[in-house]
Design goal:
With 168 residues, the protein is of the alpha+beta class. It is 32% helix and 12% strand. The protein has one domain (3-139): Muramoyl-pentapeptide Carboxypeptidase, domain 2, CATH 3.30.1380.10. Helix 1 (16-31) packs across helix 3.
Length: 168
């Protein structure tokens, strides 16, 4: 397994203990017969708001459900804190480049292996986000609002210092 599977993200913006788990996850998936590439990591609040706007009108009402890719507005996504990643499966490994496979079943191995590592996969959420996985904050009782509070006081370094009090 090579780090090429992570070439689309900025490592400096991913929480190091989470990045270590993500590397193990992608390697474990490969050993289980499924290969994934990380296609999205850190997002700014503006980037997240643009994703949130897809399929919605100016006040946030869904107008085209097929275009909706997230229910998280800027500040309420774990991507803004470097503790969430999105992966992609390649539906045709014989062709050069990545041919995204968005078939939900293609992400079952990712979800199963993520759970084994104590990560939370979006595969099991009510609003399915099968390519997504993140640190499992439910295990620590940490709401995203707490990360936002820390971020407002000191940016990503403050969030990561806060997270360092737990073993991940």
């Amino acid at each position: 397994m090579s780090m090429d599977h992570f070439s689309k993200i900025d490592f400096s913006k991913i929480y190091p203990p989470f990045l270590e788990k993500a590397e193990i996850l992608i390697d474990n998936c490969y050993k289980a017969g499924s290969e994934y590439w990380i296609i999205s990591g850190y997002r700014s609040v503006d980037e997240q708001n643009k994703l949130y706007a897809q399929g919605r009108n100016a006040i946030g009402k869904v107008i085209d459900p097929k275009l909706v890719v997230t229910n998280a507005r800027g500040g309420s996504s774990f991507h803004q804190y470097g503790v969430a990643l999105d992966a992609c499966s390649d539906k045709d490994m014989t062709r050069a480049g990545l041919q995204p496979d968005w078939n939900e079943a293609s992400y079952k191995v990712l979800a199963e292996e993520a759970k084994k590592l104590g990560l939370e996969p979006g595969f099991y959420w009510k609003f399915k986000d099968s390519p997504h996985f993140q640190l499992d904050f439910t295990l620590k009782g940490i709401p995203v609002s707490k990360l936002y509070e820390k971020y407002q006081k000191g940016g990503i370094p403050a969030v990561w210092a806060f997270l360092d009090q737990w073993a991940w």
